[in-house]
């Protein structure tokens, strides 16, 4: 088995808890459109791009809109979301995440971000995580959303490594699928019910350490 030389992290739900802000903003939009959007509905949006998320939301509400209106609504939701995350600080880094990233750096393992978020830099800067990354691939650098492997392949490329040397940490089914398509090993953060295709599944990064990479 190829030696692991890099760890690539999704952002939302893996390193920081921004998922709650996405949910609040989508729920606000649904209410404005006259229907209810639940936390269960929100599970369908994990790891999905903004416009695809809006399509799912409208399908749930049975609402049909033209493309121009949809773009306006996506911008409105994003403005609400950005307002929420602008107030974030390092207290919103998920348990064990910073400790694990520091441990990787001390062991000479490269660290990269692989996120669909176009607001990743704002979040990383507000939480103080930016300096820990050797490469940052976010929604401003990619054309295709997960499960397309583009974001992770670009990360490996920027690190100068092969996909086989990389491990992906993901909390979404689409992200685990993207890692598989990229030819990378993966650790699911969450439940085996949805992340069963990952090589290993743990409840959070607080349950993971450098030594456990050997299990992959």
UniProtKB/TrEMBL annotation:
One of its GO terms (biological process) is carbohydrate metabolic process. The active site is at 10 (proton donor/acceptor), 12 (proton donor/acceptor). Mg(2+) binds at residues 10, 12, 170-171. The record marks 115, 146 as: Important for catalytic activity and assists the phosphoryl transfer reaction to Asp8 by balancing charge and orienting the reacting groups. Substrate binds at residues 10-12, 26, 45-50, 53, 77, 115-119, 146. Keywords: Carbohydrate metabolism, Isomerase, Magnesium, Metal-binding, Phosphoprotein. Its cofactor is Mg(2+). InterPro entries: B-phosphoglucomutase_hydrolase, Beta-PGM, Beta-PGM-like, HAD-like_sf, HAD-SF_hydro_IA, HAD_sf, PGP-like_dom2. This is Beta-phosphoglucomutase. Belongs to the HAD-like hydrolase superfamily. CbbY/CbbZ/Gph/YieH family. Binds 2 magnesium ions per subunit. Pfam families: Hydrolase (PF00702). The keyword Metal-binding applies. It comes from the Bacteria. One of its GO terms (molecular function) is beta-phosphoglucomutase activity. Transmembrane segments: none annotated. It catalyses: beta-D-glucose 1-phosphate = beta-D-glucose 6-phosphate. Its EC number is 5.4.2.6.
